[in-house]
Write a structure and sequence with these properties.
Layout: H1 7-21, H2 47-58, E1 65-70, H3 74-79, E2 83-90, E3 100-101, E4 115-121, H4 130-140, E5 141-152, H5 172-183, E6 187-192, H6 195-203, H7 212-216, E7 225-231
Parallel strand pairs: 1-2, 1-4, 2-3, 4-5
Antiparallel strand pairs: 5-7, 6-7
Length: 243
Amino acid sequence: MICRISKEQRTALKKRLRRLCRPAWLGTLRTTKPLSDDWGFDRGTAVDRYYIEGFLEDYRQDIHGRVLEVKDRCYAERFGVGVEVSDILDIDTTNSRANVVADLSQAHSIPSNVYDCFILTQTLQLIYDVRAAIFHAHRILRPGGVLLLTVPSVSRIVHDCALQSDYWRFTVASCQRLIEEAFGKWVTCRSYGNVLASIAFLAGLAYQELSVHELEACDDYFPVIIAVRAVKAPGPVQASSQL
């Protein structure tokens, strides 16, 4: 007696045979725990830093004059060109380095039109009222001033948040629309990363454990971070509209 199988069964069988012929060897990644619980910093440098620092290197000419950065002035000092004043923003009153203490989503205490550059890396995901934060980022820049922003597209939850205040992950589409609401047409937005870099970042590998070729491959469907350069429209100083 001949046993006939359906077309769907034949297709499923072929796929199973292909998997057996070309198995995916996960090796040390076949675990439900990350290889590092510290973003990979205990193994080297976190994968997302490779892309953040590459982005800032590309736009280092924007980091000049009076610059604002979150938590410390690490990137202003490393990438700045002609920085005259370097201010540090933090919501944490115990940060002795911060000379601008404010919640960016309620930063009315920061004067308008004062900064030439605002370096805002990996912070927006920790702010619930994203639109208000972007409004203030735009307001405090001088006309022609530049916002250099990075946000995660894939990432573990931040330790310090205790699962309570790590709110968002972003895409190019969401960033483009959000930033354009405040900055208009003066926005450039792109993604960095690929599926391997995303897996490595989530697993806690350091970027030094990947090759440059593996890191530089860009797949818009598997971003690690989204990076945005937004310019406040040049021209006479005008009062910012209210939220």
